[in-house]
Amino acid sequence: MATQNGEIRFLTPQQSDVKKKKYCRFKKSGIKYIDYKDPEFLKKFLNEQGKLLPRRITGTSLKYQRRVAQAVKRARHIALLPFVTDLLK
Question: pLDDT tens digits for 34-61?
C-alpha cells in the first residue's frame, strides 16, 4: 500500500534480523577468577570434540578468553577434562 508522499506502510511490522549483541559473561557477572577445578563450567567453552570455542562464538573478552584457555589446559593436565573425545556433551 503506497501513500501519496511515497511512503510504504505495511499492515504488520516487518521482521528484521536483529542479532543480540554478544557480551562477556565474566564482566557482566563480575567473575574475577576462573576455577580450573570446575569441569562442568569449563565444558561450556568446549565443543563436542573437546576443542576450545573461539571468542567470536562465545562472546568472551580477550582477557577472560586467555584465562579460560589456561583453566582448560590445567584441567586437562590433571585429568578433569579430556584432551580429545567423541561427543563430550
Answer: 999 999 999 999 999 999 999 999 999 9
